Amino acid sequence: METPGARARARAAKDRMRLYQLPYSHNCAKVKIALLEKGLAFEAPPVPAGFTRSPAFLAMNPLGKVPFLVDGDVVLGESEVIVEYLEDRYPAVPLLPPTVEGRARSRWFSRFHDLYLGPQLSTLFFALSDGRAGRPDFAPEVERLVELVALFESVIDPAPYLLGAQFTLADAPFALSYHYVVTLSAAHNRPLAASDMPKYARWFEAASRRPSVSAVLAAAKEALGGA
Ligand SMILES: N[C@@H](CCC(=O)N[C@@H](CS)C(=O)NCC(=O)O)C(=O)O
């Protein structure tokens, strides 16, 4: 016979948030870091190759992209929308600063990442397998990454996080992206080392000491085959 405790546990498992994600995706990494920082339980169902194009997934999420969150009746795509939703719905551990100015500044960093640095990293990532890497007409794309990193370096002064002592949504996207800046710049023969971006490197050292960040980095590196 099912006990009330077992029923409650079954309901809790059913109601647990589900995050569809790819472990090596920087957009997904941002959301996972936010969930872990907030101490929220979630499941991350496996996303097999081709799953984002499957009728089952497209029925939930017509854009066919991850991250994608199911939280009870709430179904949401777009990493930034998801982390802002988590912030509004689960405010107990805040990931935005208390001031209006601080929140705006946090969103500036998120936008910079999501609209500029992140897409450039994706361009370099996919170029390694689609034949564009190494072609002379691809060189400007590699230089664009170098410029974006220099721009980021010029606007940050980590103490130890981007907005000071509080780890915020501003920080969440840049962790896995640091790994990609190092590995992809090297793969495209334009290596950027810690000494080329000392402030970003200093920030990364502090951020990666956080359990949320180190867990997400470890999962990504494993999915990338240790790269
Ligand atoms: N702007 C979106 C980008 C989402 C995105 O491009 N996701 C990629 C992984 S990083 C994806 O779903 N790729 C699988 C596909 O397109 O089938 C966000 O921030 O969530």
Residue fraction in strands: 5-15%
Identify low-pLDDT runs: 8-12
Strand element count: 4
Structural class: alpha+beta
Q: Compute the number of helices.
A: 9
Give the terminus-to-terminus CA distance.
50 Å
In short:
The protein has 227 residues and is of the alpha+beta class. Helices cover 56% and strands 6% of the residues.
Tell me what you see in this structure.
- The structure is a single chain.
- With 227 residues, the protein is of the alpha+beta class.
- The protein folds into 2 domains: 4-89, 3-Layer(aba) Sandwich (Glutaredoxin); 100-223, Up-down Bundle (Glutathione S-transferase Yfyf (Class Pi), Chain A, domain 2), CATH 1.20.1050.10.
- Helices cover 56% and strands 6% of the residues.
- The chain is built from 9 helices and 4 strands.
- It has helices at residues 4-15, 26-37, 55-60, 79-89, 100-130, 139-155, 174-187, 198-207, 211-223; strands at 17-20, 42-43, 68-71, 74-77.
- The chain has a 4-stranded mixed sheet with strand order 2-1-3-4, with helices on one face.
- A hairpin with a 2-residue loop joins strand 3 and strand 4.
- Helix 2 (26-37) packs antiparallel against helix 9 (211-223) and helix 5 (100-130) packs antiparallel against helix 6.
- The longest helix has 31 residues, at 100-130.
- It is globular and about 50 Å long.
- The termini are far apart.
- The site of glutathione (GSH) has 12 residues, from helix 4.
